[in-house]
Design a protein that fits this description.
mainly beta; single chain; 2 domains
Amino acid sequence: MKIRKTLLLLLCFGLLVPFYSGAVTEVDITASGTWTVPSGVTSVDVFLVGGGGGGSSGDAEGAGGSGCNTEVYSSISVTPGASISVTIGAGGAGGVGSTNGSNGSYSEFASSSYRATGGFGAGQTGFKTTGSGSGGGSWGSTDGCSSGGDGGSDGSNGTGTSPGVGQGSTTRKWHEVGGTLFAGGGGGGTGSGCTGVAGAGGAGGGGDGGKGAINGTNGTENTGGGGGGTGRSGGTGGDGGSGFISIRYTQSSVSTRQLLGHGITR
């Protein structure tokens, strides 16, 4: 009791000064659920990755799916001890039997105000004209025998005759130089019995394309990468990779410093 009263008196007379400090912490989330705000945390930054788009199959062009969008939201106010819902977007299904790939689903932190949309499935509306993560690679041209295009990476377009369009900005973690790559585009497929080769998936989890009846490769889980496309002979396009969330915060701690005379001691 005497110690507590002494500290209060020292604070009142300005002889003890509170100082706030803390280390930066990152929490990576790979499955939907809830996240509990730690004590001392009142603000967070969030990096979100949606689910990648699925690759298409056969006569639906055999293109690779686009990688998802990535988003960074800074200084979101939170309450210590609160439970916050987190949603990890599912990757879109690959096309089966000459069909388009499906779009990926969004990832979300707390509400729709903090969301990253999923990537376009190959052949879906907006696939070739609207930016989404890194663009998927084109199918093996109109004859189905040329090489499939490669998926884009780091927000770039895919390659080939009619590739998917990327978001035009970096897809690295936190959108920072040197961050881990996410949202690679899927590679395009090509037909069997052709000289062309299937396209490679883009760096950041894009799946490789398949040749003929060989299935496209799925995008890597928790990267938002697009699924690889496949050629005309009945293969299945790869599924898009699931999404990802990272939360970054500083957990404050309080210490005091005593002022003695003209000097300061801890």
